[in-house]
Amino acid sequence: MKKLMLYVSILLTFFACSNDDEKSSLDEIREYLSASNISGVTESPYGIFYKHIQEGEGETGFDLPAQSATFTYKIYDLYTDELLGSSDVPVNYNLDEISYGIQLAILYMKAGGVSEFYIPSEYAMNTGNIRMEVDLLGLSEDYLTSDDKIQYYFKLNDITDTIADPSGVYIKHLEEGTGEVAGASIDQVTVTYVGSFMSNGVVFDQSASAVTFTLDKLIEGWQIGIPYMKKGGKAQLFIPSELGYDDGQERIFEITLEDFTLKE
C-alpha cells in the first residue's frame, strides 16, 4: 500500500499544479457528474469518486488493511458507455497486481458491498476516464500465493484429478496418449497449444499448427509439466507466475504432445 500512496501523492500534486487553462481529469469527471445529474457521489481525498449502492459489512479495505480481494467488475468508458472490460466470474487478486484505480476503489469498500466508481485516466493506465462497477465478495489481510490462486480457480471451476508437482505446477490429463510418459530426458517436443491467463481466460498465445521446440529453452512450467505426458496425450498445465513469465499472472496451457525426442 505504501507504493500506492506514493503514486497517489505524486498524482495529486500533478492535478494541483495543472495549468489553469487546462482541465484536469478530476475537473472533467466533476463536470460529467454535474451535467448527468448524478447525485450521491463522494469525491475522495485520493482523487477518485465513489457511490456505494450496497454498503457491505465489516471494515473497509483501508481499515484492515487489505492485501487481496475477491470481486466481479465491469469497466466502461465514461462518455460512450462502451464496455472496456468485465468479469462476471469472481476473480481473486493481490491488490498490488491490479491498476491503481481499481486498488483504490476496493480499499474504499467493505466485503459484500456493491459500488460505482468514477476514475481519472491517470489511475486507469491513461486509457481515458472510466466508470467502474464492483461487487466485492471478500477482502483479506493475507497476500495470495500463486498456489492460493490456483486452488481458488480449481474450486471455482470444480477441477479435480490434477497431479501436483512439488514445484507448484499442476497437470490435468485430458487425453492419456500412448506408450511411456515422456520423462525427464526429453530433448525436443512437437506440440499444439493454447495459452490463457488464469485470471480472465483471455488467450495470449497459441499455435496455428504443430510446432517443435527444444524443451529446455522453454519456460520452467513447460519443462516441469510436459515430462508427465505421453505421445498423443493432451493435458492442461496450471503454471504459477514464478515458473512462467514472473509477472504476477498465473497461466493455463492446454497442450497436445504430438511427438518428442529424447536426449542422446
Structure description:
- With 264 residues, the chain is an alpha+beta fold.
- The chain has 2 domains: 2-140, Chitinase A, domain 3; 146-262, Roll (Chitinase A, domain 3), CATH 3.10.50.40.
- 20% of the residues lie in helices and 40% in strands.
- The chain contains 5 helices and 17 strands.
- Strands 9, 10, 12, 13, 14, 16 and 17 form a 7-stranded antiparallel beta sheet that branches. A 6-stranded antiparallel beta sheet has the order 1-2-7-8-4-5.
- The longest helix has 16 residues, at 2-17.
- The radius of gyration is 23 Å and the shape is elongated.
- The N and C termini lie far apart (52 Å).
- 30% of the residues are buried.
Are there runs of 5+ residues with pLDDT below 50, and where? 1-18
| Record field, number of beta strands | 17
Task: Classify the beta-strand content into a percent band.
Answer: 35-45%
Span of the ends, CA to CA: 52 Å
What is the H/E order? HHEEEEEHEEEHEEEEEEHEEE
Task: Give the CATH topology of the largest domain.
Answer: Chitinase A, domain 3
Biggest sheet details: 7 strands, antiparallel
Q: What is the arithmetic mean of pLDDT?
A: 90
What is the rounded Rg?
Answer: 23 Å
Shape: elongated
Number of domains: 2
Number of helices: 5
CATH class of the largest domain: Alpha Beta
Portion of residues within helices:
10-25%
Specify the CATH architecture of the largest domain.
Answer: Roll
> Helices and strands: which structural class?
alpha+beta
